[in-house]
Amino acid sequence: MNAIRPGTLIGETLSSKAEPRTTPLAWDRDRHLRALGERIFDLVVVGGGATGCSVARDAALRGLNVCLLERGDVASGASSRTTRFIHGGLRYLKTYEFGFVREGLQERSILMTAAPHLVRPTQFLYPAYHRRGTPRWILRLGVGLYDLLAGRKRLPGSRLLRAPETLALEPGLRPEGLSGAVLYTDAGTDDARLVVETAVSAVEAGATVALHMEVERIIPSETGPAVLVLKDRLDGTPLGVRGAVVVNATGAWAGGIPGAAPPPDRPSRGATLLRPSRGSHLVVARETLPVSHVVVMTSRRDGRILFAVPAGEFTYLGTTEVEHTGALDEVRADSTEVDYILSVAGEIFREGPIPRDRILSTWAGIRPLLDRAGQSTGRLSRDFRILQEAPGVVTVAGGKLTSCRRMAEASVDLAVSILAERFGRKADACITGWKLFPGAEGTPPGGDDEIPPGLDPAVARHLVSTYGSRATRIFRRIAGNPSSGVPFAVGCAATPAEVAHAVESEGAVRLADLLFRRLHPHFLEARMAGAGGKAVMEGAARVMAACLGWSEARRAQEVVDALAEWKRDFSVPASG
User: Fold this and answer.
1) How far is CA 278 from CA 14, 134, 194, 321, 349, in A?
2) Which residues of the chain have pLDDT under 50?
3) Burial class (CB in 10 A: 0-12, 13-18, 19+), 373
4) Cα–Cα nearest to 354, from 289, 263, 402, 447
5) Under 8 Å CB-to-CB from 222, ≥6 apart: which residues?
């Protein structure tokens, strides 16, 4: 076993309750690392994606002492690489998974209420063509059932359109054979921002969150807390931490942590339950493919559903569904997937296939699908399972972004029952079904007395729409230093004030963390190769260096590392 920093494991009893916090916490990494050795945690969560951050938030809000460990950044795996929808899953009506759809629609309603600045109503246009795909009348019945399953939480806007009305809304669609469309409303989000704010909410509730902290081994115990052997990936320092219960929320990586599974004489269900699937997307300029609604695209080849999604000055398209057999840490769109997406878009839009040289960037993520023998990955459900295998170790398997809160509630319920049985520890009831996210508490700023004079209106709109009521903090910073509200580049609303906020209050400690998770709404991955992207990257690195005390060599290396991450994960693959 690796050596553990002296004094890391101290204290012999479980704490009675997390310390109450009277003010929001500044997210200081060193302070959080020191906390690892100051107590035995009620709950240690491994994995900082949507599920892991939701587990930490839920548990901290119940009054438990919680620690979250993530080997990279929050949302640095699959949770920042989704299609960015919060939805019930209209396609699952075809397989009669009505309960699954209804639960997803309930979660959509909860998230739209708890985080209205992050999860917003989004209109979808589902075109129908003669002798191809699903007829218009069946689409109408399906969307009607979808609305019915939402119950009182249904969203407005569902209606049947004829071909002329459809083309009036989306003139870029191919008119040949078009019979009409169904227009309906679901919800969209920025996935990385949602996960970041979930982590912020957990921290403000008292959770300890240690990013870039790798769990090398879990040592379960039949009679006491588990020991987790850690390594700080920023400086290589070995550490350790104890937790009464461990929740393994690492998604597709769930079977890769030694000690999380049962002994060798008993096979792990968690490691074999999952079947990783890769979903890829590509980004083009809005002028290349202008759409005003999310357009549902059906492939002639295999009947798969893809989407063309408007996103400011960009449009992104996806997603594929390919069984992923490679390394889980090396996930990117391949040339075959890019060609497939382009061909489907060419079938739907009158301009025909988009030239490859118009693609600005790509992204791909892994879905931890529950395996069902004999089914292709395209037919596997996004349902989830919660397992207890090793003593005191709970594994969460499957699920999707929409269900992360529900998965967390069920996981913490099981963890609490283990705490009560083994340690006599009690916890409060789950409150995430109604508890607002930080940016939803209070009224978002909007008056002239709240927005600093002279601030670019585009920057002000961006801050309010991204941070909700928390934008007030950034406005105060800009009011005290107007130059911190000047964007790094024309056409991009990112400013020094926003970067400083991300470092101080959102746990950003690497330049790539900032660019690809915190400033995500700007689609910086699509700008990186241009002058604007480089200006943002260099300017942001300077601000982070000042906040974190980086040397010039460290600042330069962060730029190099961010570019390397972009080339590895977001650049366009060469034509096959």
Assistant:
1) 41, 25, 21, 6, 25
2) 1-25, 264-265, 271, 374, 376-380
3) exposed
4) 289
5) 391
| Residue corresponding to tokens 């009158």 | 350
Indicate the burial class of 545 (C-beta count within 10 angstroms; 0-12, 13-18, 19 or more). middle
Q: Which residue has the tokens 């999310």?
A: 294
- In terms of Cα–Cα distance, which of 217, 244, 237 is closest to 228? 217
Burial 267-301 (b: 16+ CB within 10 A, else e): ebbbbebbbbbbbbbbbbeeeebebebbbbbbbee
Q: Name the residue type at position 565.
A: E
Neighbours of 560 (CB within 10 A): 10
Task: Name the amino acid, one letter, at 168.
Answer: A
Query: If you ran DSSP here, which 8-state letter would residue 489 be given?
Result: B
Q: For 358-416, how does the pLDDT look when each residue is reduced to its tens digit (9 = 90+)?
A: 999 999 999 887 765 545 444 445 678 898 878 999 999 888 999 999 999 999 999 99
Closest residue by Cα to residue 63 from 332, 425, 522:
425
Looking at 1.50.10, 3.40.50, 1.10.8, 1.25.40, the CATH number of the domain 443-569 comes to 1.10.8
Q: Which residue in 501, 422, 428, 513 sits closest to 462, CA to CA?
A: 501
CATH of domain 121-189+275-370: 3.30.9.10
Q: pLDDT at position 22, please?
A: 37
Collapsing DSSP to helix, strand or coil, 374 comes out as coil
* Three state DSSP letters for 430-484: CCCCCCCCHHHCCCCCCCCCCCCCCCCHHHHHHHHHHHHHHHHHHHHHHHHCHHH
Q: What is the DSSP letter of 514?
A: I
Q: Which residue has the tokens 């009669």?
A: 96
CA dihedral 453, 457, 461, 467 (to 10 degrees): -40
The domain ranges of the chain are 38-78+193-273+382-423, 121-189+275-370, 443-569
With a CB cutoff of 8 Å and minimum separation 6, the contacts of 564 are none
Tokens of 413: 């319920």
User: Mind spelling out the 3-state secondary structure of 253-307?
Assistant: HHHHCCCCCCCCCCCCHHHHHEEEEEEEEEEEECCCCCCCCEEEEECCCCCCEEE
Q: What is the pLDDT of residue 272?
A: 54
- Written as six digits, the tokens of 405 are 């809160």
286: left (phi over 0), alpha (psi -120 to 50) or beta: alpha
The DSSP code for 515 is I
Q: Are 569 and 526 in contact (CB under 8 A)?
A: no
Class of domain 38-78+193-273+382-423: alpha beta
Token digits of residue 283:
């980004």
Residue 201, H or E segment: helix 191-204
Among candidate residues 483, 481, 439, the one with its CA nearest the CA of residue 463: 439
Which residues lie across from 88 on neighbouring strands?
A: none
* Residue type at 97 in one-letter notation: E
Three-state SS for 21?
A: coil
For residue 504, give both structure tokens: 């101080």
User: For the chain, how many residues are written?
Assistant: 576
